[in-house]
Amino acid sequence: MTNPHDFRPRYMQAADELRECIRSGRLAPGEPVPSEPDLAERFAISRTSVRHAIQLLRDEGLVRTEHGRGTYVRAPRKHIRSPRTARYQWEKERALLDDAERAQTGATEHDTGLAIGDLKFSADYAPVDAPPGIAERFGVPPGTRLLCRTYETSVTREKVPLSIARSYLIYDMAAGNPALLDDANEPWAGGTMHQLRTIGVEIDRITDEITARPPTPGEAQILDIERGVSVIVLCKISADITGRVVEFSEVVFPGDRTEIVYDIQLARWAN
Amino acid sequence: MTNPHDFRPRYMQAADELRECIRSGRLAPGEPVPSEPDLAERFAISRTSVRHAIQLLRDEGLVRTEHGRGTYVRAPRKHIRSPRTARYQWEKERALLDDAERAQTGATEHDTGLAIGDLKFSADYAPVDAPPGIAERFGVPPGTRLLCRTYETSVTREKVPLSIARSYLIYDMAAGNPALLDDANEPWAGGTMHQLRTIGVEIDRITDEITARPPTPGEAQILDIERGVSVIVLCKISADITGRVVEFSEVVFPGDRTEIVYDIQLARWAN
DNA sequence: GAGTGGTCTAGACCACTGT
DNA sequence: CAGTGGTCTAGACCACTCC
To answer: Which of B203, B214, B228 sits opposite A266 (nearest CB)?
Structure first.
Protein backbone atom coordinates (compact mmCIF):
# COMPACT_ATOMS: atom_id res chain seq x y z
CA MET A 1 0.00 0.00 0.00
CA THR A 2 2.89 2.36 0.64
CA ASN A 3 4.83 3.45 -2.42
CA PRO A 4 8.21 1.69 -2.73
CA HIS A 5 9.65 4.65 -4.66
CA ASP A 6 8.90 6.99 -1.79
CA PHE A 7 11.83 7.08 0.57
CA ARG A 8 10.14 8.96 3.35
CA PRO A 9 9.63 6.94 6.53
CA ARG A 10 6.69 4.59 6.20
CA TYR A 11 4.94 5.94 9.27
CA MET A 12 4.95 9.39 7.64
CA GLN A 13 3.55 8.01 4.42
CA ALA A 14 0.79 6.35 6.43
CA ALA A 15 0.14 9.60 8.31
CA ASP A 16 0.03 11.53 5.04
CA GLU A 17 -2.53 9.17 3.59
CA LEU A 18 -4.72 9.29 6.67
CA ARG A 19 -4.40 13.08 6.81
CA GLU A 20 -5.52 13.27 3.22
CA CYS A 21 -8.54 11.09 4.02
CA ILE A 22 -9.51 13.49 6.78
CA ARG A 23 -8.93 16.67 4.79
CA SER A 24 -10.93 15.33 1.87
CA GLY A 25 -13.79 14.29 4.12
CA ARG A 26 -13.55 10.59 3.29
CA LEU A 27 -13.06 10.28 7.03
CA ALA A 28 -15.52 12.74 8.51
CA PRO A 29 -15.43 14.29 12.00
CA GLY A 30 -16.68 11.83 14.59
CA GLU A 31 -15.99 8.81 12.42
CA PRO A 32 -13.60 6.14 13.67
CA VAL A 33 -10.22 5.66 12.06
CA PRO A 34 -9.67 1.94 11.26
CA SER A 35 -8.16 -0.01 14.13
CA GLU A 36 -4.42 -0.26 14.55
CA PRO A 37 -4.18 -3.91 13.42
CA ASP A 38 -6.32 -3.05 10.37
CA LEU A 39 -4.09 -0.15 9.41
CA ALA A 40 -0.97 -2.25 9.99
CA GLU A 41 -2.23 -4.79 7.51
CA ARG A 42 -3.47 -2.21 5.04
CA PHE A 43 -0.19 -0.27 4.96
CA ALA A 44 1.90 -3.46 5.38
CA ILE A 45 3.75 -2.01 8.35
CA SER A 46 4.03 -3.00 11.99
CA ARG A 47 1.57 -1.86 14.60
CA THR A 48 4.36 0.23 16.15
CA SER A 49 4.64 2.24 12.96
CA VAL A 50 0.89 2.66 12.77
CA ARG A 51 0.92 4.04 16.29
CA HIS A 52 3.69 6.43 15.32
CA ALA A 53 1.59 7.68 12.40
CA ILE A 54 -1.48 8.16 14.58
CA GLN A 55 0.60 10.02 17.09
CA LEU A 56 1.50 12.57 14.43
CA LEU A 57 -2.16 13.12 13.64
CA ARG A 58 -2.93 13.49 17.34
CA ASP A 59 -0.25 16.14 17.66
CA GLU A 60 -1.84 17.99 14.76
CA GLY A 61 -5.16 17.90 16.55
CA LEU A 62 -6.79 15.86 13.79
CA VAL A 63 -7.76 12.76 15.77
CA ARG A 64 -8.59 11.81 19.35
CA THR A 65 -7.83 8.38 20.77
CA GLU A 66 -9.91 6.66 23.45
CA HIS A 67 -8.48 3.69 25.24
CA GLY A 68 -10.47 0.52 24.54
CA ARG A 69 -12.77 2.28 22.06
CA GLY A 70 -10.83 3.51 19.10
CA THR A 71 -9.41 6.56 17.37
CA TYR A 72 -11.83 9.15 16.02
CA VAL A 73 -11.60 12.13 13.71
CA ARG A 74 -11.89 15.28 15.82
CA ALA A 75 -14.38 17.98 15.13
CA PRO A 76 -12.89 21.46 15.55
CA ARG A 77 -13.60 22.53 19.11
CA LYS A 78 -16.12 25.22 19.81
CA HIS A 79 -14.40 28.44 20.74
CA ILE A 80 -15.45 30.38 23.78
CA ARG A 81 -14.97 34.08 23.14
CA SER A 82 -13.28 36.10 25.80
CA PRO A 83 -13.66 39.77 24.84
CA ARG A 84 -11.22 41.75 26.91
CA THR A 85 -11.63 45.41 25.92
CA ALA A 86 -15.37 45.40 26.43
CA ARG A 87 -15.13 43.35 29.62
CA TYR A 88 -12.62 45.62 31.31
CA GLN A 89 -14.62 48.77 30.68
CA TRP A 90 -17.85 47.04 31.68
CA GLU A 91 -16.27 45.76 34.89
CA LYS A 92 -15.03 49.21 35.76
CA GLU A 93 -18.43 50.83 35.37
CA ARG A 94 -20.06 48.01 37.29
CA ALA A 95 -17.82 48.68 40.29
CA LEU A 96 -19.79 51.91 40.83
CA LEU A 97 -23.16 50.18 41.19
CA ASP A 98 -24.72 49.26 44.52
CA ASP A 99 -24.52 45.76 45.99
CA ALA A 100 -27.82 44.47 44.65
CA GLU A 101 -27.10 45.51 41.09
CA ARG A 102 -23.58 44.10 41.16
CA ALA A 103 -24.82 40.75 42.46
CA GLN A 104 -26.96 40.17 39.42
CA THR A 105 -24.22 39.09 37.06
CA GLY A 106 -20.49 38.50 36.95
CA ALA A 107 -17.82 39.26 34.41
CA THR A 108 -17.67 35.80 32.93
CA GLU A 109 -21.42 35.73 32.44
CA HIS A 110 -21.03 39.05 30.64
CA ASP A 111 -18.41 37.52 28.34
CA THR A 112 -20.08 34.26 27.56
CA GLY A 113 -23.76 35.12 27.70
CA LEU A 114 -24.35 32.39 30.27
CA ALA A 115 -26.67 32.88 33.22
CA ILE A 116 -25.21 33.28 36.69
CA GLY A 117 -26.26 29.79 37.80
CA ASP A 118 -24.44 28.17 34.86
CA LEU A 119 -21.07 29.00 36.29
CA LYS A 120 -19.11 27.42 39.07
CA PHE A 121 -16.27 29.17 40.67
CA SER A 122 -13.57 28.41 43.21
CA ALA A 123 -11.13 30.77 44.86
CA ASP A 124 -8.18 30.37 47.17
CA TYR A 125 -6.12 33.14 48.80
CA ALA A 126 -2.61 32.82 50.17
CA PRO A 127 0.13 35.31 51.08
CA VAL A 128 3.39 34.76 49.18
CA ASP A 129 6.78 36.41 48.91
CA ALA A 130 7.17 38.04 45.52
CA PRO A 131 9.34 36.02 43.14
CA PRO A 132 11.70 38.24 41.10
CA GLY A 133 9.68 38.15 37.86
CA ILE A 134 6.51 39.34 39.54
CA ALA A 135 8.23 41.81 41.86
CA GLU A 136 9.62 43.47 38.76
CA ARG A 137 6.13 43.98 37.33
CA PHE A 138 5.04 45.77 40.48
CA GLY A 139 8.29 47.68 40.78
CA VAL A 140 8.85 46.39 44.33
CA PRO A 141 11.83 44.48 45.79
CA PRO A 142 11.75 40.68 45.41
CA GLY A 143 10.39 39.08 48.56
CA THR A 144 7.77 41.80 49.15
CA ARG A 145 4.64 40.27 50.64
CA LEU A 146 1.92 39.70 48.03
CA LEU A 147 -1.58 38.30 48.22
CA CYS A 148 -1.85 35.47 45.70
CA ARG A 149 -5.39 34.56 44.68
CA THR A 150 -6.10 31.54 42.48
CA TYR A 151 -9.39 31.01 40.68
CA GLU A 152 -10.92 28.28 38.59
CA THR A 153 -13.98 29.12 36.57
CA SER A 154 -16.09 26.37 35.02
CA VAL A 155 -19.42 25.84 33.39
CA THR A 156 -21.58 23.90 35.86
CA ARG A 157 -22.63 21.29 33.33
CA GLU A 158 -19.04 20.57 32.39
CA LYS A 159 -16.29 19.26 34.57
CA VAL A 160 -13.57 21.16 32.81
CA PRO A 161 -12.63 24.72 33.81
CA LEU A 162 -12.74 27.55 31.30
CA SER A 163 -9.59 28.99 32.77
CA ILE A 164 -7.18 28.96 35.68
CA ALA A 165 -6.23 32.38 36.99
CA ARG A 166 -3.68 33.63 39.48
CA SER A 167 -3.95 37.21 40.59
CA TYR A 168 -1.45 39.11 42.74
CA LEU A 169 -2.00 42.21 44.87
CA ILE A 170 0.44 44.01 47.15
CA TYR A 171 -0.46 42.51 50.53
CA ASP A 172 -0.09 45.70 52.54
CA MET A 173 -2.25 47.56 50.08
CA ALA A 174 -5.03 44.93 50.13
CA ALA A 175 -4.89 44.91 53.94
CA GLY A 176 -6.43 48.39 53.82
CA ASN A 177 -9.72 46.47 53.76
CA PRO A 178 -9.36 43.22 55.78
CA ALA A 179 -12.31 41.72 53.89
CA LEU A 180 -10.04 41.58 50.84
CA LEU A 181 -7.71 39.14 52.59
CA ASP A 182 -10.27 36.37 53.10
CA ASP A 183 -11.29 33.99 50.32
CA ALA A 184 -14.49 33.23 52.21
CA ASN A 185 -15.77 36.49 50.72
CA GLU A 186 -15.55 35.05 47.20
CA PRO A 187 -17.28 35.20 44.87
CA TRP A 188 -17.08 38.93 45.45
CA ALA A 189 -19.89 40.68 43.65
CA GLY A 190 -18.22 43.16 41.38
CA GLY A 191 -14.82 41.53 41.02
CA THR A 192 -11.39 42.95 41.51
CA MET A 193 -12.28 46.41 40.24
CA HIS A 194 -14.82 46.78 43.02
CA GLN A 195 -12.55 45.21 45.61
CA LEU A 196 -9.89 47.78 44.79
CA ARG A 197 -12.44 50.57 44.91
CA THR A 198 -13.04 49.75 48.60
CA ILE A 199 -9.45 50.81 49.25
CA GLY A 200 -9.63 53.88 47.09
CA VAL A 201 -7.93 52.50 43.98
CA GLU A 202 -9.18 53.31 40.47
CA ILE A 203 -7.73 51.23 37.64
CA ASP A 204 -6.98 53.41 34.66
CA ARG A 205 -4.96 51.37 32.22
CA ILE A 206 -4.53 47.67 31.56
CA THR A 207 -1.81 45.97 29.55
CA ASP A 208 -2.42 42.43 28.33
CA GLU A 209 0.46 40.24 27.18
CA ILE A 210 -0.51 37.06 25.38
CA THR A 211 1.71 34.04 24.85
CA ALA A 212 1.25 30.33 24.18
CA ARG A 213 3.19 27.39 25.53
CA PRO A 214 2.76 23.64 26.10
CA PRO A 215 0.77 22.92 29.26
CA THR A 216 2.46 21.57 32.35
CA PRO A 217 1.22 18.06 33.18
CA GLY A 218 -0.91 19.59 35.94
CA GLU A 219 -2.55 22.13 33.62
CA ALA A 220 -3.13 19.43 31.01
CA GLN A 221 -5.03 17.43 33.59
CA ILE A 222 -7.10 20.28 35.04
CA LEU A 223 -8.03 21.76 31.67
CA ASP A 224 -8.47 18.33 30.01
CA ILE A 225 -6.05 19.16 27.25
CA GLU A 226 -4.77 16.57 24.83
CA ARG A 227 -1.27 16.10 23.53
CA GLY A 228 -0.15 18.74 21.11
CA VAL A 229 -2.61 21.37 22.36
CA SER A 230 -1.07 24.43 23.99
CA VAL A 231 -2.41 26.78 26.60
CA ILE A 232 -2.84 30.50 25.98
CA VAL A 233 -1.40 32.57 28.79
CA LEU A 234 -2.73 36.09 29.31
CA CYS A 235 -0.74 38.32 31.66
CA LYS A 236 -2.81 41.31 32.73
CA ILE A 237 -1.07 44.27 34.32
CA SER A 238 -3.38 46.87 35.83
CA ALA A 239 -2.19 50.36 36.71
CA ASP A 240 -4.12 52.93 38.71
CA ILE A 241 -4.61 56.56 37.81
CA THR A 242 -1.18 57.46 39.20
CA GLY A 243 0.47 54.87 36.93
CA ARG A 244 1.34 52.53 39.80
CA VAL A 245 0.87 48.80 39.06
CA VAL A 246 -1.79 47.56 41.48
CA GLU A 247 -2.61 44.10 40.16
CA PHE A 248 -0.82 41.47 38.15
CA SER A 249 -2.68 38.43 36.99
CA GLU A 250 -1.96 35.44 34.84
CA VAL A 251 -4.82 33.55 33.23
CA VAL A 252 -4.32 30.16 31.59
CA PHE A 253 -6.81 29.14 28.90
CA PRO A 254 -7.08 25.88 26.96
CA GLY A 255 -5.72 26.82 23.54
CA ASP A 256 -8.12 24.69 21.54
CA ARG A 257 -11.33 26.32 22.71
CA THR A 258 -10.55 29.90 23.59
CA GLU A 259 -10.70 33.00 21.46
CA ILE A 260 -9.45 36.22 23.00
CA VAL A 261 -10.86 39.37 21.50
CA TYR A 262 -9.80 43.01 21.49
CA ASP A 263 -11.53 46.00 19.94
CA ILE A 264 -9.35 48.92 19.08
CA GLN A 265 -10.86 52.27 18.25
CA LEU A 266 -8.47 54.46 16.29
CA ALA A 267 -8.32 58.23 16.33
CA ARG A 268 -9.85 59.90 13.26
CA TRP A 269 -7.74 61.60 10.65
CA ALA A 270 -8.23 65.34 10.75
CA ASN A 271 -10.09 66.52 7.69
CA MET B 1 16.18 2.45 39.44
CA THR B 2 12.44 2.75 39.00
CA ASN B 3 10.35 2.07 42.08
CA PRO B 4 8.69 -1.37 42.00
CA HIS B 5 5.88 -0.15 44.26
CA ASP B 6 4.99 2.54 41.74
CA PHE B 7 2.51 1.14 39.28
CA ARG B 8 2.58 4.02 36.85
CA PRO B 9 4.08 3.16 33.47
CA ARG B 10 7.84 3.01 33.61
CA TYR B 11 8.31 5.52 30.82
CA MET B 12 6.30 8.02 32.89
CA GLN B 13 8.39 7.35 35.96
CA ALA B 14 11.50 7.95 33.88
CA ALA B 15 10.00 11.16 32.46
CA ASP B 16 9.08 12.33 35.97
CA GLU B 17 12.59 11.79 37.20
CA LEU B 18 14.14 13.62 34.26
CA ARG B 19 11.60 16.44 34.58
CA GLU B 20 12.54 16.81 38.24
CA CYS B 21 16.24 16.98 37.29
CA ILE B 22 15.45 19.82 34.90
CA ARG B 23 13.16 21.73 37.25
CA SER B 24 15.69 21.49 40.06
CA GLY B 25 18.52 22.67 37.83
CA ARG B 26 20.56 19.51 38.16
CA LEU B 27 20.20 19.43 34.39
CA ALA B 28 20.65 23.06 33.35
CA PRO B 29 19.49 24.66 30.09
CA GLY B 30 21.85 23.81 27.27
CA GLU B 31 23.19 20.73 29.00
CA PRO B 32 22.82 17.36 27.30
CA VAL B 33 20.48 14.74 28.70
CA PRO B 34 22.30 11.37 28.98
CA SER B 35 22.13 9.29 25.81
CA GLU B 36 19.26 6.91 25.20
CA PRO B 37 21.30 3.75 25.83
CA ASP B 38 22.64 5.31 29.06
CA LEU B 39 19.16 6.13 30.28
CA ALA B 40 17.89 2.68 29.30
CA GLU B 41 20.53 1.11 31.50
CA ARG B 42 20.08 3.58 34.33
CA PHE B 43 16.30 3.11 34.50
CA ALA B 44 16.53 -0.60 33.57
CA ILE B 45 14.03 -0.18 30.75
CA SER B 46 14.24 -0.64 27.00
CA ARG B 47 15.42 2.07 24.68
CA THR B 48 11.89 2.26 23.27
CA SER B 49 10.59 3.26 26.70
CA VAL B 50 13.36 5.80 27.11
CA ARG B 51 12.36 7.33 23.80
CA HIS B 52 8.75 7.44 24.95
CA ALA B 53 9.80 9.29 28.11
CA ILE B 54 11.89 11.79 26.15
CA GLN B 55 8.99 12.35 23.81
CA LEU B 56 6.87 13.49 26.74
CA LEU B 57 9.50 16.00 27.74
CA ARG B 58 9.73 17.24 24.17
CA ASP B 59 5.97 17.78 24.09
CA GLU B 60 6.27 19.82 27.27
CA GLY B 61 8.91 21.95 25.62
CA LEU B 62 11.56 20.96 28.16
CA VAL B 63 14.11 19.35 25.83
CA ARG B 64 15.19 19.57 22.21
CA THR B 65 16.56 16.60 20.31
CA GLU B 66 19.15 16.84 17.53
CA HIS B 67 19.71 13.86 15.30
CA GLY B 68 23.22 12.46 15.67
CA ARG B 69 24.12 14.89 18.46
CA GLY B 70 21.93 14.29 21.47
CA THR B 71 19.05 15.65 23.51
CA TYR B 72 19.50 18.98 25.29
CA VAL B 73 17.64 20.89 27.95
CA ARG B 74 15.90 23.82 26.30
CA ALA B 75 16.33 27.36 27.43
CA PRO B 76 13.04 29.30 27.39
CA ARG B 77 12.82 31.00 24.02
CA LYS B 78 13.23 34.72 23.75
CA HIS B 79 9.89 36.38 23.17
CA ILE B 80 9.44 38.92 20.43
CA ARG B 81 6.87 41.50 21.51
CA SER B 82 4.21 42.40 19.05
CA PRO B 83 2.35 45.42 20.46
CA ARG B 84 -0.89 45.77 18.56
CA THR B 85 -2.70 48.78 19.99
CA ALA B 86 0.27 51.08 19.65
CA ARG B 87 1.15 49.71 16.23
CA TYR B 88 -2.27 50.21 14.72
CA GLN B 89 -2.55 53.81 15.82
CA TRP B 90 1.03 54.51 14.74
CA GLU B 91 0.41 52.94 11.36
CA LYS B 92 -2.68 55.03 10.86
CA GLU B 93 -0.93 58.30 11.58
CA ARG B 94 1.99 57.28 9.40
CA ALA B 95 -0.32 56.83 6.42
CA LEU B 96 -0.71 60.61 6.34
CA LEU B 97 3.02 61.31 5.92
CA ASP B 98 4.69 61.92 2.56
CA ASP B 99 6.57 59.20 0.69
CA ALA B 100 10.02 60.02 1.99
CA GLU B 101 8.95 60.00 5.61
CA ARG B 102 7.00 56.77 5.25
CA ALA B 103 9.94 55.02 3.61
CA GLN B 104 12.11 55.49 6.64
CA THR B 105 10.69 52.68 8.73
CA GLY B 106 8.06 49.97 8.60
CA ALA B 107 5.58 48.66 11.10
CA THR B 108 7.59 45.64 12.15
CA GLU B 109 10.64 47.80 12.77
CA HIS B 110 8.42 49.95 14.94
CA ASP B 111 7.34 46.89 16.92
CA THR B 112 10.68 45.24 17.38
CA GLY B 113 13.09 48.14 17.49
CA LEU B 114 15.09 46.64 14.64
CA ALA B 115 16.52 48.79 11.86
CA ILE B 116 14.98 48.65 8.42
CA GLY B 117 17.87 46.65 6.93
CA ASP B 118 17.49 43.93 9.56
CA LEU B 119 14.25 42.73 8.09
CA LYS B 120 13.52 40.64 5.07
CA PHE B 121 10.14 40.51 3.55
CA SER B 122 8.33 38.61 0.86
CA ALA B 123 4.89 39.20 -0.60
CA ASP B 124 2.69 37.41 -3.05
CA TYR B 125 -0.67 38.56 -4.41
CA ALA B 126 -3.34 36.37 -5.95
CA PRO B 127 -7.05 36.78 -6.66
CA VAL B 128 -9.25 34.18 -4.97
CA ASP B 129 -12.93 33.40 -4.64
CA ALA B 130 -14.07 34.06 -1.09
CA PRO B 131 -14.51 30.87 0.95
CA PRO B 132 -17.64 30.94 3.14
CA GLY B 133 -15.85 31.71 6.42
CA ILE B 134 -14.10 34.76 5.02
CA ALA B 135 -17.04 35.95 2.96
CA GLU B 136 -19.04 36.07 6.18
CA ARG B 137 -16.49 38.38 7.79
CA PHE B 138 -16.81 40.84 4.93
CA GLY B 139 -20.57 40.44 4.73
CA VAL B 140 -20.40 39.50 1.03
CA PRO B 141 -21.68 36.38 -0.79
CA PRO B 142 -19.32 33.39 -0.85
CA GLY B 143 -17.40 33.32 -4.10
CA THR B 144 -16.97 37.10 -4.27
CA ARG B 145 -13.61 37.95 -5.79
CA LEU B 146 -11.00 38.83 -3.18
CA LEU B 147 -7.37 39.85 -3.38
CA CYS B 148 -5.35 37.47 -1.21
CA ARG B 149 -1.96 38.74 -0.17
CA THR B 150 0.53 36.52 1.67
CA TYR B 151 3.54 37.85 3.52
CA GLU B 152 6.48 36.36 5.33
CA THR B 153 8.51 38.61 7.56
CA SER B 154 11.89 37.51 8.84
CA VAL B 155 14.95 38.88 10.53
CA THR B 156 17.73 38.96 7.93
CA ARG B 157 20.25 37.21 10.17
CA GLU B 158 17.87 34.37 10.87
CA LYS B 159 16.36 31.93 8.47
CA VAL B 160 13.10 31.61 10.33
CA PRO B 161 10.18 33.99 9.71
CA LEU B 162 8.66 35.98 12.56
CA SER B 163 5.22 35.40 11.13
CA ILE B 164 3.20 34.32 8.15
CA ALA B 165 0.34 36.60 7.22
CA ARG B 166 -2.53 36.35 4.79
CA SER B 167 -4.52 39.49 4.14
CA TYR B 168 -7.73 39.75 2.14
CA LEU B 169 -9.24 42.77 0.43
CA ILE B 170 -12.36 43.01 -1.73
CA TYR B 171 -10.89 42.78 -5.22
CA ASP B 172 -13.17 45.32 -6.84
CA MET B 173 -12.46 47.79 -4.09
CA ALA B 174 -8.69 47.37 -4.33
CA ALA B 175 -8.91 47.73 -8.11
CA GLY B 176 -9.77 51.40 -7.51
CA ASN B 177 -5.99 51.83 -7.55
CA PRO B 178 -4.40 49.31 -9.95
CA ALA B 179 -1.07 49.65 -8.13
CA LEU B 180 -2.68 47.82 -5.22
CA LEU B 181 -3.14 44.70 -7.37
CA ASP B 182 0.53 44.12 -8.12
CA ASP B 183 2.87 42.50 -5.60
CA ALA B 184 5.82 44.06 -7.43
CA ASN B 185 4.95 47.23 -5.51
CA GLU B 186 5.76 45.52 -2.20
CA PRO B 187 7.16 46.41 0.21
CA TRP B 188 4.74 49.31 0.07
CA ALA B 189 6.02 52.16 2.19
CA GLY B 190 3.28 52.82 4.69
CA GLY B 191 1.57 49.45 4.69
CA THR B 192 -2.05 48.59 4.24
CA MET B 193 -3.38 51.71 5.97
CA HIS B 194 -1.68 53.86 3.34
CA GLN B 195 -2.66 51.56 0.50
CA LEU B 196 -6.29 51.90 1.51
CA ARG B 197 -5.93 55.66 1.83
CA THR B 198 -5.11 55.81 -1.90
CA ILE B 199 -8.62 54.56 -2.57
CA GLY B 200 -10.25 56.84 -0.03
CA VAL B 201 -10.64 54.36 2.80
CA GLU B 202 -9.99 55.34 6.42
CA ILE B 203 -9.79 52.49 8.92
CA ASP B 204 -11.57 53.39 12.12
CA ARG B 205 -11.89 50.27 14.20
CA ILE B 206 -9.96 47.02 14.40
CA THR B 207 -11.04 43.78 16.07
CA ASP B 208 -8.38 41.21 16.89
CA GLU B 209 -9.32 37.62 17.64
CA ILE B 210 -6.57 35.46 19.08
CA THR B 211 -6.51 31.67 19.15
CA ALA B 212 -3.90 28.93 19.37
CA ARG B 213 -3.76 25.60 17.58
CA PRO B 214 -1.21 22.98 16.56
CA PRO B 215 0.68 23.98 13.42
CA THR B 216 0.00 22.31 10.11
CA PRO B 217 3.06 20.37 8.90
CA GLY B 218 3.73 23.20 6.45
CA GLU B 219 3.64 25.88 9.13
CA ALA B 220 5.81 23.77 11.41
CA GLN B 221 8.43 23.64 8.69
CA ILE B 222 8.33 27.31 7.69
CA LEU B 223 8.33 28.62 11.25
CA ASP B 224 10.79 25.99 12.50
CA ILE B 225 8.46 24.82 15.22
CA GLU B 226 9.07 21.70 17.24
CA ARG B 227 6.58 19.07 18.27
CA GLY B 228 4.22 20.19 20.98
CA VAL B 229 4.60 23.90 20.21
CA SER B 230 1.47 25.62 18.91
CA VAL B 231 1.05 28.61 16.69
CA ILE B 232 -0.80 31.73 17.78
CA VAL B 233 -3.31 32.86 15.19
CA LEU B 234 -4.36 36.50 15.15
CA CYS B 235 -7.39 37.36 13.02
CA LYS B 236 -7.56 41.09 12.38
CA ILE B 237 -10.80 42.58 11.10
CA SER B 238 -10.58 46.19 10.01
CA ALA B 239 -13.65 48.34 9.52
CA ASP B 240 -13.72 51.77 7.92
CA ILE B 241 -15.49 54.83 9.27
CA THR B 242 -18.82 53.64 7.87
CA GLY B 243 -18.50 50.34 9.72
CA ARG B 244 -17.91 48.30 6.57
CA VAL B 245 -15.27 45.56 6.87
CA VAL B 246 -12.49 46.47 4.45
CA GLU B 247 -9.70 44.07 5.35
CA PHE B 248 -9.48 40.68 6.95
CA SER B 249 -6.10 39.26 7.81
CA GLU B 250 -4.81 36.19 9.55
CA VAL B 251 -1.34 36.23 11.04
CA VAL B 252 0.35 33.03 12.22
CA PHE B 253 3.06 33.40 14.88
CA PRO B 254 5.30 30.73 16.39
CA GLY B 255 3.79 30.24 19.83
CA ASP B 256 7.06 29.73 21.65
CA ARG B 257 8.60 33.08 20.85
CA THR B 258 5.81 35.57 20.38
CA GLU B 259 4.16 37.88 22.86
CA ILE B 260 1.18 39.87 21.69
CA VAL B 261 0.48 43.02 23.62
CA TYR B 262 -2.56 45.28 24.03
CA ASP B 263 -2.89 48.48 25.99
CA ILE B 264 -6.36 49.37 27.12
CA GLN B 265 -7.14 52.84 28.40
CA LEU B 266 -10.27 52.91 30.52
CA ALA B 267 -12.67 55.80 30.94
CA ARG B 268 -12.33 57.67 34.24
CA TRP B 269 -14.92 57.44 36.96
CA ALA B 270 -16.80 60.68 37.31
CA ASN B 271 -15.91 62.36 40.61
C1' DG C 1 -15.15 -12.83 25.43
C1' DA C 2 -13.78 -10.21 21.49
C1' DG C 3 -11.90 -6.06 20.07
C1' DT C 4 -9.81 -1.82 21.06
C1' DG C 5 -5.70 0.92 22.41
C1' DG C 6 -1.47 1.13 26.02
C1' DT C 7 2.94 -0.65 27.61
C1' DC C 8 7.14 -3.04 26.88
C1' DT C 9 10.96 -5.86 25.13
C1' DA C 10 15.23 -7.22 22.34
C1' DG C 11 17.24 -6.56 18.57
C1' DA C 12 18.24 -4.84 13.90
C1' DC C 13 19.63 -1.42 10.68
C1' DC C 14 19.88 3.42 9.03
C1' DA C 15 21.18 8.51 9.15
C1' DC C 16 23.53 12.06 11.11
C1' DT C 17 27.42 14.31 13.83
C1' DG C 18 31.63 14.49 15.53
C1' DT C 19 36.91 13.41 15.30
C1' DC D 1 35.47 5.74 13.06
C1' DA D 2 32.41 5.64 17.35
C1' DG D 3 28.44 7.56 19.27
C1' DT D 4 24.22 9.73 18.78
C1' DG D 5 19.24 9.60 17.62
C1' DG D 6 15.58 7.72 13.88
C1' DT D 7 13.07 3.87 11.88
C1' DC D 8 11.19 -0.62 12.12
C1' DT D 9 9.89 -5.38 13.32
C1' DA D 10 7.40 -9.35 15.69
C1' DG D 11 5.56 -10.51 19.43
C1' DA D 12 3.95 -10.38 24.24
C1' DC D 13 0.93 -8.96 27.82
C1' DC D 14 -2.13 -5.52 30.05
C1' DA D 15 -6.23 -2.26 30.58
C1' DC D 16 -10.31 -0.65 28.96
C1' DT D 17 -15.01 -0.86 26.54
C1' DC D 18 -18.84 -3.05 24.91
C1' DC D 19 -21.83 -6.75 24.21
So the answer is: B203
Q: Which helix (H) or strand (E) holds B148?
A: strand B145-155
Eight-class DSSP state of B3: -
Which residues have C-beta within 8 Å of that of residue B28, sequence separation ≥ 6? Answer: B73
Is the C-beta atom of B71 closer than 7 angstroms to strand D?
yes
Written as one letter, the residue type at A155 is V
Per-residue CA distances from B101 to A161, B98, B112 (Å): 50, 6, 19
A184: CB partners within 8 A, 6+ apart: none
Cβ neighbours for B190, distance < 8 A, ≥ 6 positions apart: B94, B95, B97, B102
Q: How confident is the model at residue B37 (pLDDT cuts 50, 70, 90)?
A: very high
| Cβ pair B210, A260 in contact under 8 A | yes
CA of A65 to C1' of C4 (A): 10
Q: What is the pLDDT of residue A114?
A: 62
B61 at interface of A, judged by CB pairs closer than 8 A: yes
Asked if the C-beta of B24 comes within 8 angstroms of chain A's C-beta atoms, the answer is: no
Summarised one tens digit per residue, pLDDT across range B246-260 is 999 999 999 988 999
Please state the pTM of the whole predicted model: 0.88
